[in-house]
Design a protein that fits this description.
This is GxxExxY protein. This protein has 123 residues and is α+β, with helices and mostly antiparallel strands. The protein is built from three helices and seven strands. The chain has a single domain (3-122), classed as 3-Layer(aba) Sandwich (Trna Endonuclease, Chain: A, domain 1). It has helices at 3-21, 27-40, 86-99; strands at residues 45-50, 53-55, 58-60, 65-70, 74-79, 103-108, 118-122. It starts with a helix and ends with a strand.
Length: 123
């Protein structure tokens, strides 16, 4: 599956979850519901996948986790905050660098219009 087609499917699931639940819930609620929707459309999903840090030639478990990894290609970082801050985008960029992935979606579910809660980040 092409990356653009995959992100189209993912965003469709994001809209479905947001439409059903609305804003104001905990991030963990959106995470488990989005995982369910992604699985329903036949995608492979890993939730809370450990993300080690490679430092000085060794791999260290520093406690970082990818919220959702879809088809081993797209990193999803979920938020439920009043407003995304620049550090949130930096976090996704760092996770992409650590994981070797090229595409991440930063998703803030605490918005009235989900279109305003989606940021695509490419490395």
């Amino acid at each position: 599956m092409e990356l653009n087609d995959l992100t189209y499917q993912i965003i469709g699931c994001v809209y479905k979850v947001h439409s059903e639940l609305g804003p104001g819930l905990l991030e963990s609620t959106y995470e488990i519901c989005l995982e369910y929707e992604l699985l329903q459309v036949g995608l492979t999903v890993e939730r809370q996948k450990p993300l080690p840090v490679h430092y000085d030639g060794i791999k260290l478990d520093a406690g970082y986790r990818i919220d959702l990894l879809v088809n081993d290609l797209v990193l999803l970082e979920l938020k439920s905050v009043e407003e995304l801050a620049p550090i949130h985008k930096s976090q996704v960029m760092t996770y992409l660098k650590l994981s070797g992935l090229k595409l991440g979606l930063l998703l803030n579910f605490n918005v009235q219009d989900m279109k305003k809660g989606i940021i695509r980040i490419i490395m």
